[in-house]
Amino acid sequence: MTRLKARIVDLIEALGPIPVSEYMALCLSDPRDGYYMTRDPFGRGGDFTTAPEVSQMFGELIGVWIIETWRAMGSPKRAMISEIGPGRGTLVRDMARTIGKLAPELRDATRFKLIEISGKLRLAQATTLQGTGGTFDWYSSVDELPKRPLIIVGNELFDAIPIRQYVKTPTGWRERMVDIDRDENLRFIAGAGSVDPDLLPPDAANAPDGSIVELAPQRTVLMQKIAEHIARYGGAGLFIDYGYLQPALGDTLQALRKHQYDDVFASPGEADITAHVDFAALAAEAARHGLSTSLATQGDFLLDQGLLERAGKLGGPLDAAGRARIESEVMRLASPKEMGSLFKMLIVRREPKPIKR
Question: What is the pTM assigned to this prediction?
Fold first, then answer.
């Protein structure tokens, strides 16, 4: 039993069952034993590998998107570039290097704003970014950002924000809770709390007992804060995650440890716990603030940004083994059988106001 699991058992014994959202928050963000607060989980030596760790091309092409977006905004001199949830800093390093090479005027005019709550990951990011050439500041939340135009990127951000789950029972939809059995093993139960039927997907009315619905109000709140900033001061956001395009039934709560799926109750605090992202809900919240939205698969976005051309340039000087490695990275990032279809990209932006004549 992990130290955090013992504390969760004690909490449930004292206060009763807790919602899935609270369990997920404890596992990931508990100040003493939370997963992201105590370790660097990224890369081959960690528990999972994100797209920036797969290839430098991922961050380079997002850097190109940032340059294009900034120029479409009229090249504002006080614009900020931000990454929220920067991991160990690999993505922002590759973005900053690309911006410095292709648009040094943007690099010189901006400061990179990293939004990170983990002190351990902040140290890892500072190490990664040494010698990059950009200027970097750290913040704990979107609320702390200066009041300026914002271009913000979030990669595998929303999947780690806690969700609420509801289970269909003979008496209706009930919130799914985490409880303990007689042997102090964690288990799911149906609680007393219900859900507003208007929040359920269209097929929920005819769902069989035992069906699961996932709602994510905390994700909506974060998108609200980002959208409010962009709507007021200008800018755009790019958010990459695995998920679905329309609300649907299903249990997507999962744990990952050492690059293998794990039981969500096996190792609290020592495994990553995530759930798929409802992109339609995020896009609707951005649109509610007057922002335009567009969705694409990761594969389509990267190919449109010039993935194959960049791969050819990188692979040109290399030997056969090097070119094979580049080809493997392209397939991992863009193939529908790999990350290309599972991962989606949501772009939100404030469109320029038409000029009155």
Answer: 0.91
